[in-house]
Amino acid sequence: LYAEVKIEELVEEGEFTGDEVRQLLEVLDSQDEGLTSWAWSLVDVLLGKGLMTRDSAEKLLELLKSEHRKVREDAWSRVRYLLDWGLVTRDDAGHFLNLLEYRDEEVRLDAWYRLAGLMKALAEKGIMTQEDVKRSKKYFFELLESTNEYVSLKAWSRVKYFLELGVITPEEVRERVQYLFRLLKSDDERARLDAWEHAGDLLEKGVVSPGELAEVKQCFFDLLRSNEDVRSEAWSRVEDLLGKGIFTRDDAGHFLNL
C-alpha cells in the first residue's frame, strides 16, 4: 500500500518518469529474489494504475525469455494485464511466435504452456491467430518427445487444450503417444502420477484406447503400494481416473487386494 501511494505521489509530481520505469524493469531480471519481489510489486502498481507504456511493455515481454525460471513465471503472469490495458498489439506477435520456437527447451515450454490459456484473448484482440500458432506446432511436438521428463510431462499437460483450440489434431498426437506411455512407466513416481491424469484426458478425447492403457495399468497400481505420500496422492486421483474411464469392473480385484 505504501508503494502504491508513493508511486502515485511521484507520478503526480512528475518525478516518476519513463527513465525510472526502465530502471525498475532492469531490476526484474535479477537473481536476488528479495529485490525482484519488491520490483514486481511496483510493476503491479504501475499496471493496476494504467501507468505502463508501450516501451515498458516491450521490456516486460523480453523477460519472457529470461534464463531465470522464476523471472519468466513472474513475467508471464503479467501478460494478461498488458493485454487488458492494450499494451500488447499485433506488432508484438513476433515476441510470442519466437518463443514458441525458442532454442532453450524450458523457455519454449513456458511459452506453449502459458499460451494455451491466452490464445483466445490474443485471437480476440487480433494479436495472434490459431493459424499463426499452427505454423510452429512442430516445436511443440519436440517438447512432447523431450528426454527431459519435466519438459515432456508439462507439455503433455497442454495437449488437450491445443486439441480443443484446433492447433493440433488427434492423429498428430497419436503419432507421438509412445512418449506419453514412457511417462506412464516413469521411475519418477510423481511424474508417473501426473502422466496418468493426462492419459485420462486423452482417453476421453479418443486419442488412446482402454486396451492400450490396460497393458500398462500395473504401473499405476504399483503407486498404490508405494510410500505413504505417493500412495495417498495416487488414491486421491482414483475417483477422477474412474470418471475418465481408465478403470473398469475388471480392475476391481486390484483394489480389493490392496
Total helical segments: 19
Q: Which regions have little confidence, pLDDT < 50, spanning 5+ residues? A: none
* Share of β-strand residues: under 5%
Radius of gyration: 22 Å
Described by strand count, sense and barrel closure, the largest sheet is: none
- The number of E-state strands comes to 0
* Secondary-structure element string: HHHHHHHHHHHHHHHHHHH
Helix content: 55-70%
Give the overall average pLDDT. Answer: 87
Global morphology: elongated
> From the helix content, strand content and strand pairing, which structural class follows?
mainly alpha
Terminal residue distance: 54 Å
Give the topology, please.
Elements: H1 2-12, H2 18-27, H3 33-48, H4 54-62, H5 69-76, H6 79-84, H7 93-100, H8 105-124, H9 130-134, H10 137-144, H11 149-156, H12 159-164, H13 170-174, H14 177-184, H15 189-204, H16 210-214, H17 218-221, H18 228-243, H19 252-256
Helix pairs in contact: 5-8, 11-15, 14-15, 15-18
Question: In brief, what are we looking at here?
Answer:
The protein contains 19 helices and no strands. The protein has helices spanning 2-12, 18-27, 33-48, 54-62, 69-76, 79-84, 93-100, 105-124, 130-134, 137-144, 149-156, 159-164, 170-174, 177-184, 189-204, 210-214, 218-221, 228-243, 252-256. The chain starts with a helix and ends with a helix.
